[in-house]
Amino acid sequence: MDKSGLRRHRSGVSRPAQPSGERAGLSEPRSKIAGKMNKKITVKGVVQGVGFRPFIWRLAGENGIKGHVKNTSSGVVIEASGEKNALAKFISGISLKKPPRAEISSVKTENSPPKTYKTFEILKSESLKQNKAAIPADLAVCGDCVSETMSQSDRRHFYPFTNCTNCGPRFSIIERIPYDRSYTVMKSFKLCPDCLREYENPADRRFHAQPNACPVCGPGVWTRVKGRLLRGEKALDHVVRILAEGGLAAIKGLGGFHLACDAFSPKAVERLRKFKDRPRKPFALMSGEPENLGKLLFISRREKKCLNSFRAPVLMLRKKDFKKFAAVSPGLDTAGVMIAYTPLHRVIFKKLAALGFRNPLVMTSGNLRDEPVIKDNEKAEEVFASFDAVLCHDRPIHNRVDDSVCFLDTSGGERLIRRARGYVPESVRLPFESREQALAAGADMKNCFALLRDGEAFLSQHIGDLEEKLNRDFYGETISNMKKLLGIKPSVIVADLHPDYHSRRITDALPGKHVYVQHHVAHVLSVMAETGLKDGVLGVSFDGTGYGPDGKIWGGEFFYIKAGKVERKAHLSYFPLPGGDLCASEIWRSLFSLLYAGGVENKKLLSFFRGAVKVSERNTLMRMIDSGVNSPLTSSVGRLFDAFACLIKRDFYATYEAQGAMELESLVREKPEDFYRFNIVEADGSLQISPLEAVSACLSDSLAGEDEGLMAARFHLGLSVAVAETLSKIRKGTGPAPVCLSGGVFQNRVLTEWVSGELSKRGFKAFFNSKVPANDGGIALGQLYSHLLGIKPAWPGND
Fold it and tell me: Is 719 contained in some domain?
């Protein structure tokens, strides 16, 4: 027996030494085996990499259960022997007392042949032909590991890769299932004797913590300074000094590189903006001292809990001090902040504090504009060569994964904007027991795809815009990785109806049955999938643009879903988009189109656009609209927001997606007494919401110099009332029905809150996305659900 009290077994797996006799709880004399029952228990879900087997070992000891537990590629399998009541208590305890990071999707119990066990053991993992295990998400550093990392007397003092079964990398390092060290990037790091003792002791919180490491045997950090290689603490000290002095640093983290600088240094932030070609788009921030954030931002109790959760997302928080955040999130009333979620980040902030530096850091994705986050050292040193420091480490990243972003709504519910680190690859359970395996391709913007297995949808991490070639490569690579990890061979491929989407073209080349789903229908179905609603549902889908079956560009849609059919019941009135996609960046075009096509007198038109848009450009747009040349018709609420943003803020151009809408939302301070009226009319067999009266009224206010915040509030309330009134009119024909609202526009907190209020007043029950983003990052879930429900749109031309 070694010093740790472990006995070596012939299987090569260490077992805790047990005293003989009944009092030990895990072994007993042969004379007492009568009346025992044997059960085989299979537990599925996120039960690997979260301390589940040592938990089962302890639970067995508490209940006098003998047998064994092991990881398999189908989940955790337990053979348990004990008295009837003890077994029942043991089985119920699996779900009731599970480890905090575990997520159980099913516990299957069946009788086993009689067998005598002397102890309860943790056996070596087993790989089965059929892979049904779930993969754990990456976890933020836990309190115990933080304490050890900061303790000068601990052997892991300031070690950037401290972890245990309750925290650390999971998805980012795994290569295949089952989740064992030999199947992760840690296989090349041989455990030292001290780490091995922890790894083999079921009573230790590092028992089978696959990334377990220390300064003796684990990964290390390094950087180059004028051709000289600095390692370990010297490398950290150099990077910390650069940041404290206002420099730029690229830092390799959990799922890729971050680009960092002092968040409150306008000079440093401007330099970073020029590098990323990102003139105004907000940057994510990281704080090492969450207690200080309350001085700068409004943080509720629930928001504080979310910030400090094991997911540690970037959380959108309202500003107290607008001036401090002027450089990092201009024009917005919120800032996106996350807590230092790895030991590496904690050490950096601790060392910064020692130098008297206590500001948050910009911690934005380490990539060039719209490209995938960089994960490899050599590539990072090449791309970020102009930075003052590039901090690398030698723990490879197998699955790159960006930071997740979310906000809390007024009821405290979590609303995702980007679903990635901390969430992926957790599944969304669907109300079907389907054995079918399928792939949903997702959208082209903010792409995430999804895989279906046994009624569970596994969404990928955020991929990005597939217009970019490197993102398409990342897309194909990740589909291949996820299919392998989850053991899925899709027989059905579900994609967007748009014939020119890259996601459709790429997946059309894959074998299987191909099904296509209209973009905005998929948005609504994503909410239905989350809530388990199957039939008799009203849906509202507001976003930028999406392919419509009538050849027009949709984006402001009302549906009724009943008996497998989708009916388009209403939409925003069509208006031209002169220049097509150019309208998303030159937002004055949408406004000009609404005013000109709506018959607003030329005198007002000239007065508003004078000095901002050349006469020749205005004349060109008039001819385009009149002739219909490169001016597709749209019902897009996203472009409607652009028009009102231009009208209210007098900003004629946008440098990032939804800039106008986000800045317009930030202007709203309180609910107004009146609002801009949207007229609801019946035309061409459906209801249409006409914005012309609202646009005209807002134009008059703008020309009269009305307060921007008041105009923004009147617009938000007017649109909210229009949504509720339209649904009330539809309900007269459909009868009572729940309402599912989705699409990127419903990431607007003001609109979501006011629409909810207006619907509640009229007796509607409203549902929004919470498990997936309302933007195109949630489309894939709706695509899968459409296929499972067998949805068939009921509009002309559908076959």
Answer: yes
